[in-house]
Amino acid sequence: MALGSDVRDILDLETPDKDPVTKESLMNDSKKKKARKSDINSKRPEGMHRELWGLLWTDNKDSPPLVPSDNSQGYKQMKAKIGSSKVRPWKWMPFTNPARKDGTIFYHYRRVADEGKDYPFSRFNKTVDVPAYTDLEYQQHLHDDNWTRLETDTLFDLCKRFDLRFIVIQDKWDREKYKERSVEDLKERYYNVCNTLKKVRAPPGTEPKIKVFDAEHERRRKAQLTKLFERTPEQVEEEDNLIAELKKIELRKKEREKKTQDLQKLITAADSNIDSRRTDRKITKKKLPPQKTKEGLSNPETCGIKFPDFKQSGVSLRSQRMKLPASIGQKKMKAIEQVLEELSIEFNPMPCEEIVQNFNELRQDIVLLYELKLALANCEYEQQTMKHRYDTLRGIKTEVNMDVTPSSLPSTPIPGETSVSLLSGTPIGVSSTPNTPLIQVTESQDDSPTLKKGGEAVDVVGNADSLTTPNRKRKAAIEQSNLLKKIKQKS
Amino acid sequence: MMADVRQEPTVGGGRIKGLTIVKPIIYGNLARYFGKKREEDGHTHQWTVYVKPYKNEDLSIYVKKVHFKLHESYPNPNRVVTKPPYEVTETGWGEFEVIIKIYFNDPNGNEKPVTFYHLLKLFQSETDIMLGKKSLVAELYDELVFQDPTPAMQQLLTSVRPISLGAYKHETDFEEKREKTNNNLIAAKNKIRYEISELNERLKFAKQNISKLKKDIAQIEKVDDKSIISLIPQ
Prior knowledge:
heterodimer, A: 491 residues, B: 4 helices
């Protein structure tokens, strides 16, 4: 196709040349971007989907396009629109590289327009500022016992040559002439010299900027990294295991701490419980924290179970007031059932008013007792672990009497097998011999005949689960403390 | 219309707050073994499920009807009884749960019906019952608690009329049972309370121990920390 400009060129018609194509016009042409400021920043109507609104109104258009868009360009490369201006001539010309010291003249093709300009790539010739010192300065400030003048000079020369690439410098270091120097040694000497020079040369009153280089730290850091790198796979595995164990220990620790907190509240609750019951019979009890108690803290977080309160008007069956709430867990229900069985009380006695009241109270007490037992088990466990730690730290076996009530029962050895007894006086966490007679406790408070009945060490919370979990936990804790000992010994 | 009735505080509309009327009832079933399995349908027992008042009174004054829902395999499983004796007699071969629903004669229609469940008991290991000489009795005690009834309802509930002229008693001696159960419960409560207080003591003691140990350990650790740092390998 004969364009106008081509025709003019052929015919050598003189027309003022439009400015030679600049880079900007080329680049901008191919991506015509009209940055029209959108004056109306309309808001998407509520309820309309974002995509729908996007179809109707994008950032710079305010009406739907009437002309269908042209998708033919698709995946093709955009052809650069070169434009129809005249060809720019190139010429073979000489140039010098200011980065070179010798001023050699080279030749290459360049645009005529660029003739005379500097070689553009010379600006990349950057060098590092390596300070130079005089003899006087050296004698006055830079003297060092480990470094001779010659060594220092070589060092600085190498630094200048290799642009402070210390790895290379260390490699180039002449081991026969001078003694073996590590990278840290070289760096240390270099930075010390630089800093001293800066301090000396700084005009009085100004603070020179000092590069801090801690050679010791660097040496240790690299030693540690090499150690880390050179670990065998077994060591890596062992480390991972230890870390996992540590996490588990921490987790359990947190749990136990939480439990001790609950414990505190339990104790206060149990205390206030018993006191309040001795005075007047209140039936409303609230559940344990972490649930929030709405009614003020007049009855501070008592524990137990709340029975559905049927104070509403209407007809109801008395037996419904005896129903257990649904939120009681399986374990507690089991515990209640076991105790009731032991006391030979049927699970659903005949619902008279008095019986219902007594029964509900009894069950609440049972739950409270169960929770206290659990808390006590936790406490004992914690005591054990602490004692263990104490012993390992001390390195001696102290004799701590752990399972002793104030009325001083005979002290018992650390358990292999424990039995959590609910109704008898046998202490928890006790006795490799499960038939230790319980005596002292009941003797001191000997009144009702029914107390003597509970003579056997009965397993109320006898499920395999609740029994062995404290057991298992204890064993796991002992293992972990052994692991900790190992770690300490290794270090 | 309903609004008018409610606005009038008395005269059968408003509830009497704080008033509770308790009507104890007995419900359950009798069952008797035929002695053999009946050929035609395989039934082995005859049973009667019933609801009776604990005291000698006529329930129909305040009870409109009693609805017994039997197992689906029975024709017409929904049996409604509108006057005493409130019972259903049937034959069968298996035990199932009967849903008993009592509807009340509330003139204002306020009282909702109460529902309860009874597992029909046919089998027992006592020889006489197994042989069919004696009937098996499975009855339970419960109480209908009317909380804040309307005056009209109260009227119905308090006008007691005996239903049988002669002696009125049940198969099970509930009085004795009540006495025994209550005593048991009270004894149990005391025992548990004692255990609780005991545990409390031990808990407190344990806690003291723990805090003491903690302190000791902390002290040792402080000393140890300083010495351990020197153990780090170079």
